[in-house]
Amino acid sequence: MTRRLVVGITGASGAVYGVRLLQRARELGLETHLVVTPAGVLNAHHELDLDRAALDALADRAYAPADIGACVASGSFDTAAMVVAPCSMKTLAAVAHGFGDNLLTRAADVTLKERRPLLLMVRETPFNLAHLRNMTAVTEMGGIVFPPLPAFYNKPASIAELVDDTVERALALAGVRDAQPKAWSGLRG
Ligand SMILES: Cc1cc2nc3c(=O)[nH]c(=O)nc-3n(C[C@H](O)[C@H](O)[C@H](O)COP(=O)(O)O)c2cc1C
Question: Could you give all domains of the chain from N- to C-terminal order, each with its CATH number?
């Protein structure tokens, strides 16, 4: 099985999820292919003080969103899965409607058509009806809507731990076998 993972970072809040995902994918020996939208760069700069070059350096290969001729735009380029972390409502809408207007949304469209796992780490609150309908549409197409909602039952000691728990679960859902999400062992008594 290929170890290629396509990663998208959009302009929703939570750029740290994309960053930790790339770092963890590297630790696990995955080959990462990254597309960051302009709003994704804006947000990563605001939230993490990282510029495009710093984000791109976290991946094996990085592409400009306008580079619609890149390998990840074609289903013939074999990939294991794609994760968009975080995923804005705008990108969700594009994916829900098969609107491949940039390399990120095209790669997501390709991932769905090739029936490969597509995880959208959607982030917004509260949701309006368009958001909810778009999430339903993506789910009906086989995509996985994976909002980064923290689980407090593992008693995370820090925000970093909370983020890492979510990232590990996302990687496991994307089919990365050596990901190690924390398993709930049940309450005693
Ligand atoms: C600081 C900041 C935070 C944002 N947070 C969100 C968010 O959590 N969810 C969302 O859907 N859009 C959010 N947006 C708006 C998106 O960035 C905007 O809709 C953008 O057009 C998304 O484009 P993209 O999907 O191509 O990255 C935020 C924008 C800024 C500047």
Answer: 4-173 (3.40.50.1950)
pLDDT digits (tens, 9 = 90+) for 23-62: 999 999 999 999 999 999 999 999 999 999 999 999 999 9
- How far, in Å, from the CA of 54 to the mean position of ligand 1? 20
d(CA 108, CA 121): 13
Separation of CA 2 and ligand 1 centre (Å): 32
- Residue closest to 33 by CA, chosen among 64, 73, 72: 72
Q: In whole angstroms, how far apart are CA 31 and each of 7, 86, 110, 130, 188? A: 10, 19, 18, 34, 41
DSSP bridge pairs for 31: 4
**Ligand 1 mean position, distance from CA 183 (Å):** 32
Q: List, in order, residues 6 or more apart from 67 with CB less than 8 Å away.
A: 103
pTM to 2 decimal places: 0.97
Residue 106 one-letter amino acid: R
Strand 81-87 with 4-9, pairing: parallel
- What the block records as the tokens of 147 is 């909002």
Q: What angle (nearest 5°) sits at the alpha carbon of residue 25, between those of residues 63 and 143? A: 75
Q: Tell me what the mean pLDDT of segment 105-122 comes to.
A: 98
**Residue bearing the CA closest to ligand 1, atom 18:** 11
How high is the pLDDT of residue 134? 98
